[in-house]
Design a protein that fits this description.
3 domains, binds magnesium ion, 46% helix, alpha/beta, six-stranded mixed sheet, Four Helix Bundle (Hemerythrin (Met), subunit A), 15 helices, binds guanosine-5'-triphosphate, Gyrase A, domain 2, Rossmann fold
């Protein structure tokens, strides 16, 4: 267990690069730096300096170092950043020297946890740090950077404000029951409704924008042998799925990630839909239909060199109402279907246009970068909404006040003003060491 008074250290860059960044944070940073570098830390912080790291009087690295003085650092504590040579041996020697000088190896997310505890950022901003690192595409990165700059906290604070107003009306009613009818109490129903509407809007917007994190779920659907797996491979640019001339090749659902126009997309190849001839194929067809139920959009693939079949017609019906792109594949063999996007997985014709159409579907979903997309934040908002709705159905001022406190508690857990220690532990446990 790392104590908050420990001075911690950890490598902060990926292993194997030319330069390894090692960070130290805590009260003893200055003493440790002076021991390792064998000279006093300069009075001018934030400057990159050329130094030698010593261990038992021997130079173990010739590198660069920056000292940040509390509270003007990432963690809010004194910090040292060593930019060493990147080899495993160098890094291991420097880490041993730090340990011998009194440092303690940092656990996952320890630096960001300290930044949160020292008030350098709120909890939603701390969580955004991890989202920035894990961002799968440009739009997810933009959204995480928005969150890092405090957009989530700002929007949550606005609802908190509405709820606090509602609560003060209630408190007035409890304290001065006789004047309650004329007083602010009269405005309570409207205040509750307004807070509920804001919460509901935030939740809906956030759920939509979660596409940013999970990717637009795009299901490739069609009867057997029209070239669904060939399309998956063509869009991915690699031979991921098995393609054969026999109908009924794909049995399982294949789920691949790629980025189209900066938006993360989950591309899902399915078994060709028809009356299945064996058990495995039947299960495959069932899975294809289940994938369709949760799809954000569908690529309905036809064989453009043949006339439409009754199986194609059935799929048109099944995908009605879904966002879809109808594709006539194998256009290199002939064009017998019109009103569909002609492509050829064989020659690559039409693929650029297809990608453009996918981009137009994915982009609007990705536009709201300030939305609250983190699952923990969304469930806290839902909890708050439930409490507000409950309050709307109450008549006793005391009961309404209790509901409002519960809603405010839920909102406080987003920014971390009102959060249990275990929640904090759970959040930082998912961080990488060194961040
Ligand atoms: N000429 C031509 N052949 C294609 C094209 N796309 C796919 N094919 C061929 O069509 C056959 C079926 O391709 P698949 O990608 O396996 O088709 P599928 O829809 O995944 O088939 P199932 O998994 O059985 O449902 C293979 O022989 C491919 O080489 C194309 O654009 N032009
Ligand atoms: Mg296939």
């Amino acid at each position: 267990m790392i104590e908050s008074f420990d001075t911690v250290f950890a490598p902060s860059s990926a292993i194997g690069g030319a330069i390894a960044v090692i960070r130290v944070s805590g009260d003893r940073t200055r003493a440790i730096a002076e021991k390792l570098l064998n000279k006093p830390v300069s009075d001018r912080p934030n400057l990159l300096r050329h130094v030698r790291i010593l261990r038992d009087g021997q130079t173990i690295d010739d590198c660069m170092a920056v000292f940040f003085r509390a509270p003007h650092s990432y963690t809010g504590e004194d910090m040292l950043e060593l930019h060493c040579h990147g080899g495993m041996t160098t890094v291991r020697c420097v880490l041993s020297a730090l340990s011998e000088a009194g440092g303690v190896p940092a656990g996952p997310g320890e630096f960001t946890r300290r930044a949160f505890l020292n008030g350098k950022m709120d909890l939603s901003e701390a969580e955004a740090v991890m989202d920035v690192i894990n961002a799968q595409a440009e739009t997810s990165l933009k959204s995480a950077l928005e969150q890092l700059s405090g957009s989530v906290s700002r929007r949550v604070r606005a609802v908190e404000e509405q709820l606090l107003n509602a609560r003060s009306s209630i408190e007035a009613a409890i304290d001065y029951p006789d004047e309650a009818e004329e007083s602010a109490y009269a405005s309570l129903p409207a205040a509750l409704r307004e807070a509920g509407e804001t919460l509901a809007a935030l939740i809906e917007e956030g759920r939509k924008a979660r596409v940013l994190r999970d990717g637009l779920k795009l299901v490739i659907l069609g009867r057997p042998n029209v070239g669904k797996s060939s399309l998956l491979n063509a869009l991915l640019g690699e031979d991921r799925a098995i393609v054969t001339a026999a109908a009924g090749t794909t049995r399982d659902v294949l789920d691949e990630r790629l980025s189209i126009g900066g938006v993360p997309v989950r591309l899902i190849d399915t078994a060709g839909v028809r009356e299945a001839s064996d058990e495995a194929e039947r299960i495959g067809v069932d899975r294809a239909k289940r994938a369709l139920e949760t799809a954000d959009a569908v690529l309905l693939v036809l064989d453009g060199s043949e006339e439409l079949t009754p199986e194609d017609e059935a799929l048109f019906k099944e995908t009605e109402g879904k966002t879809r792109v109808v594709i006539a594949n194998k256009c290199d063999l002939g064009r017998r279907i019109h009103d569909a996007l002609p492509i050829s997985c064989k020659t690559g014709e039409g693929l650029t246009e297809l990608k453009r159409q996918i981009e137009t579907i994915a982009k609007p979903a990705a536009q709201s970068t300030a939305a609250i997309t983190n699952e923990r934040h969304l469930s806290a908002l839902e909890h708050a909404l439930e409490a507000v709705r409950h309050a709307e159905g109450q008549t006793e001022p005391d009961c309404i006040a209790t509901d409002l406190s519960e809603a405010l508690h839920a909102l406080g857990s987003i920014t971390g003003t009102d959060v249990d220690a275990e929640v904090i532990d759970r959040i930082f446990a998912h961080f990488c060491v060194g961040k």
